[in-house]
Design goal:
This protein is of the alpha+beta class. The chain has one domain. About 30% of the residues lie in helices and about 35% in strands. It is built from 2 helices and 4 strands; from the N terminus they run H-E-E-E-E-H. It has a 4-stranded antiparallel β-sheet, with helices on one face. A hairpin with a 2-residue loop joins strand 2 and strand 3. The relative contact order is 0.16.
């Protein structure tokens, strides 16, 4: 599946916004982009939507 320029630009904007948390990168996978912080995947960008992995340690901060 080919990724459009719009999808690549969106992923780039998301990665730029998340740099305040540390070294954030995106990698093409699953027909979208995996979002990684210091090598650990914590999100997925698919169809220009960002999905975050929520676990008990970060649930309160992400849901407020």
């Amino acid at each position: 599946m080919a990724i459009s320029v719009e999808q690549r630009e969106y992923a780039g904007r998301i990665v730029d916004l998340l740099q305040c948390f540390g070294l954030v990168e995106s990698k093409f996978m699953f027909g979208g982009f995996g979002v990684f912080l210091e090598g650990l995947m914590f999100g997925l960008i698919a169809n220009n939507e960002l999905y975050l992995k929520v676990v008990s340690q970060n649930r309160r901060r992400l849901c407020s």
